[in-house]
Amino acid sequence: APTLRNLMPANVRIGAAVDGRLYAADARYRDTLTSDFNAVTPENALKWPILQPEPGRYDWTASDELIELARANGQAVYGHTLVWHSSVPSWVSESWSRERLRSVLREHVQTTVTRYRGKIWAWDVVNEVLAEDGKLRDSIWLRGLGPTYIADAFRWAHEADPDARLFINDYGVEGRSRKADGLFKLVRELRAQGVPVHGVGFQAHLRAGTAPNDATGNLRRFAALGVSVAITELDVRIALPVSTEKLLDQALLYQHMLRACLAVPTCESFTVWGFTDASSWITSHYPGYGAACLYDSDMKPKPARDALLHEL
Ligand code: XIL
């Protein structure tokens, strides 16, 4: 039977965010993951509080295991994420001096990227740095270090692995919006300053029955800046209860986003944020919504998965 992995054009990776424990322990999860996807993004295993629960004590157990499994199954690994306001270890203190905050951030970026040098093809260096109005989002990093923390993080990551593709990633920017305009300006400025930003990641956490405003044109204008683009966290949540009509709306939106990616020659990867409703983050983070993935909770393919196959 045809699979997403087999049908995807060779220049575009097809990925899924994964839970390493399920990958290791659940045969049904693993079989679907390895037959449909040639890339994975650790859903949480590379986040800072997991990697460094206490100052100076790194714990690579979960990330090493997941990355080894992916490699054993011929899957590329997308690294998520080095700098994110919402995932800072609790021992990092807002009251530290600028120098101390900066050196802790630098150490984290350098150590993490160096450890997986050659094993992670791309990194979300910074995640969600913009606010809805297109300005930089308030965060411990912006308050403590000022806007230059972004360029610094890219330079540190690039030094640690010159071959890794370095992305800036955000949500609410897949269509044209004020936030997307802000991201566009930021990427243009960073590139003009020679900062090693190689790609823009569009999360695309979407809701069935909606559509981003001109996703294709939006991806194209970023590509014209000389960067790659990627759909990094696609899911399409449904307002419960599920109906046949909503599943079809969902399928159309998945297909729409794949079409936008395939329309842009430098769209390098298309990643869904979880592939099965059995373990999607939507249930716990969006009360009243669910069924956001390509496979249902019994690991049966949904219309959305057929729609992607059909598009390929
Ligand atoms: C989410 C994970 O899916 C959850 O398991 C975790 O509890 C919180 O983070 N944007 C991102 C991802 O960049 O890191 C988030 O992942 C989903 C939203």
TrEMBL record:
SUPFAM superfamilies: (Trans)glycosidases. Its EC number is 3.2.1.8. Keywords: Carbohydrate metabolism, Glycosidase, Hydrolase, Polysaccharide degradation, Signal, Xylan degradation. It catalyses: Endohydrolysis of (1->4)-beta-D-xylosidic linkages in xylans. Residues 1-311 form the GH10 domain. Belongs to the glycosyl hydrolase 10 (cellulase F) family. This is Beta-xylanase. It comes from Micromonospora peucetia.
